[in-house]
Write a structure and sequence with these properties.
508 residues, alpha/beta, Aspartate Aminotransferase, domain 1, Histone, subunit A, Aspartate Aminotransferase, domain 2, 3 domains, 19 helices, 12 strands
Length: 508
């Protein structure tokens, strides 16, 4: 079966089982962050009131007045006893006292944004919101706060859109093309394997396979990147389905490789699970001028339906020097493509090209994420940055640890070790069989069954959905379980069902 046929078959078997379905296949968290949402809804109601106050016409409102708007918001919030009101007031204070925003300008941008009153301008991201997301980016990646504008942020319709935009824009700018080599750290979430091999791209994929043990990147893991033909390295860190983060000392090794041998190497780092690893340090911290950072807020805040993501890049990036070095033919191609934006295309930075490419250039003037979504994104980010919001992520960490323990206990397995997000668990069925039933039973299972058959049995007999490792280019005897999707008790049931299937196989 193809990737999606196999996923569909497992889901259909679970539905046909007649049992309550426990879906640990898709990484949809079963929590959601309520306080920043409450703040956004309160802000929306205040903004509508301000719009009505800005005109005497009975049929519509107008753009709220900026003068004194921050004081009016705080007065409005004083009459509210909801948690979102306290949060929203703190967010206004954080913007002014920590980020240095003018209070009225800050609240006015929030109000216009939540009302959708005007095109995104700049279309990359509203200016004060971008500074919020820049601070969030540095905080999540373990980077000390830096002057505004050190990193540029482009708000996108989720992490998937961000990745699709990057692939397309790299191709349009002749950074990658048919037959070029790209490296991908595996196992990896499936689209990263499928997109490069589509006919549109036709890339030659070099896989850097994760290792067992506490460190997913063993000695020599990054050595293939010494090949100068490899144009771009794609990596999810912390991983999916392997939930471990690359340790800081390994990132230092990659930094040395880039600095001493591959200053031209571009690294696209997906950090969607970074907030689940306390003390996480991303590649952006060590190689800021080589890394294009992709991030989504869907997992942390339980907002998969909101499609909130962004791309962040250092303002002085290696890709701009690469574009400037292109030959005359490529430069002519670029000039033709981006001529509607500027007459001096050679000075057009990659981030501006990326934003334009997201709307096929012709519609670059209306690119960008909807402004109400930008507001919600900024409020999510502020809830992570402000002390008032840290209780939420701390509680999520504790819950995921309890869920992982409940899943693994019936199997007698230990956590993988190292810095792990605990968002997923990657279970080695062969190791579990060996531990629980011995070498002969493990050999019998490997000889008599296809690895995907156990996932199908769990679905048809127990109503449980897990995903086989082959979908991610993991070991074929691995299965991925989403710890974020089920409760502690439900994950204990999943662990018991896997144990029961292994025992049934061993008894034959």
């Amino acid at each position: 079966m193809s990737t999606f046929e196999l996923q569909s078959a497992i889901g259909a078997a679970a539905l046909d089982s007649g049992k309550p379905v426990l879906n640990a296949g898709r990484g949809q968290p079963n929590w959601l962050s309520t306080v920043p949402r409450d703040g956004a809804f309160l802000l929306g109601r205040f903004a509508v009131h301000e719009a009505l106050a800005a005109t005497t016409h009975p049929a519509w409102g107008m753009t709220p007045d900026i003068g004194g708007i921050a004081d009016r918001l705080l007065a409005h919030l004083a009459d509210e006893d909801a948690a979102g009101a306290t949060f929203l007031g703190a967010a206004v204070d954080f913007g002014a006292s920590v980020l240095g925003f003018d209070r009225d300008a800050w609240v006015h941008e929030l109000c216009r944004g939540v009302l959708g009153d005007g095109y995104p301008s700049p279309n990359r991201m509203l200016p004060l919101m971008e500074q919020v997301m820049e601070r969030y980016t540095t905080e999540v990646n373990g980077i000390a706060p830096c002057p505004p504008g050190t990193y540029q942020v482009f708000a996108t319709e989720g992490g998937a859109a961000a990745m699709a935009y990057i692939f397309r824009s790299l191709q349009e700018n002749h950074v990658i093309g048919h037959g070029d080599k790209v490296a991908i750290a595996t196992p990896v979430f499936t689209p990263y394997l499928q997109i490069p091999t589509l006919e549109d791209f036709g890339l030659d994929v070099v896989e850097l396979q994760a290792t067992d043990g506490d460190d997913r990147t063993g000695d020599g893991f990054f050595d293939p990147l010494l090949d100068p033909d490899i144009k771009v390295f794609f990596v999810i860190n912390p991983g999916n389905p392997d939930s471990r983060a690359i340790p800081p000392d390994r990132i230092h090794q990659l930094h040395d490789l880039v600095a001493n041998h591959r200053p031209d190497l571009l690294i696209v780092a997906d950090t969607v699970y970074a907030t689940f690893v306390p003390g996480f340090r991303g590649m952006l911290a060590d190689m800021p001028k080589n890394v294009i950072c992709v991030h989504s807020l869907s997992k942390n805040f339980g907002a998969t339906g909101s499609r909130l993501g962004f791309i962040a890049m250092h303002a002085d990036h290696a890709i701009d020097r690469l574009l400037a070095s292109h030959d005359e033919a490529k430069q002519r191609s670029h000039a033709l493509r981006y001529s509607s934006m500027t007459s001096d295309v050679t000075s057009l930075r990659y981030m501006a090209r990326l934003v334009a490419d997201s709307r096929e250039v012709a519609l670059h003037n209306i690119a960008g994420l909807a402004t109400p979504d930008q507001v919600q994104m900024a409020l999510f980010a502020l809830s992570y940055l402000m002390p008032e919001g840290r209780n939420f992520i701390g509680a999520v960490h504790l819950e995921l640890a309890a869920r992982e323990a409940a899943l693994l206990e019936p199997l007698g397995l230990n956590p993988p070790g190292g810095q792990e997000s605990m968002y997923y668990a990657l279970i080695d069925l062969r190791a579990a069989m060996l531990l629980g039933h011995g070498l002969e039973a493990a050999a019998h299972m490997v000889d008599s069954l296809a690895p995907t058959e156990i996932a199908l049995r769990l679905a048809s007999r127990h109503g449980i959905v897990v995903l086989p490792g082959e979908l991610f280019d993991a070991d074929s005897w691995d299965v991925r379980v989403s710890l974020a999707s089920l409760t502690v008790d439900e994950l204990a049931t999943v662990g018991e069902a896997i144990a029961a299937e292994l025992a049934s196989i061993a008894a034959v």
